[in-house]
Amino acid sequence: MQISNGASLLAKMARLPDRLSDSQLAKMDAIAARCPAPLPVATDGELEERLLLLMSALPRQTAGDIDGALKIEAYLLVLRSRQMPAAQLDFMTRRALETCRWMPAPAQLLELAAEWTRNDEAVQACARAGALAWRERERRLDDARRALIRGELDQAGIDALPQRFVDIFETQGLLRREVTEDGARYTARPQPKLPDADKAPADISELRQRLDARFASQRGDA
Fold first, then answer.
1. Would 214 be classed as within a structural domain?
2. What is the spatial distance between Cα 156 and Cα 56, in angstroms, rounded to a whole number?
3. Which residue among 61, 88, 119, 151 is the one 20 to 30 A from 181 at the CA level?
4. How many domains is the chain built from?
5. Span 39-57, pLDDT tens digits
């Protein structure tokens, strides 16, 4: 399936919440996997219009050139074979006007056209969907990592983790692989107990006071 109405998709994605549900994540994956619909190929009339513009704006480099109508037909023969969309044709024309002092040869026009990169709303929608899906997965990865460190993820939650998460957490020492009769199984590794936030010093001054009280005899002012 291909994307044609990129503007509508971009508008819908702009209204998505900060965190995506499973169904919304699946939709972003589906959009990112689609190729944008091909742009319509420029017509002969559009090609001829751009060529006339170039020929009127850029002088011919040699005197006694072939008839203008024949020259346009020669250019059309080359450009028509490349099946360029109007956006690429406009880019080629603008680049020729910006960079050429003389009417470029067909091969030069094709080189300028090759510099064009498609970036319409359909392409942007695919890229945006992919970025949203990646961001949500990274956030879910961080959520699962924090839950493992805090000991808040039970075995059922571990078993439900995506394989990518499991591989990362095993590498980070948060999970260990156990071989059972039914195959491999991953369990949580015991993690060092985190300090109690309620007992942690509020700031540097409080920490200094605690140290002063503890080592007062060594300072000679006890």
1. no
2. 73
3. 151
4. 2
5. 999 999 999 999 999 999 9
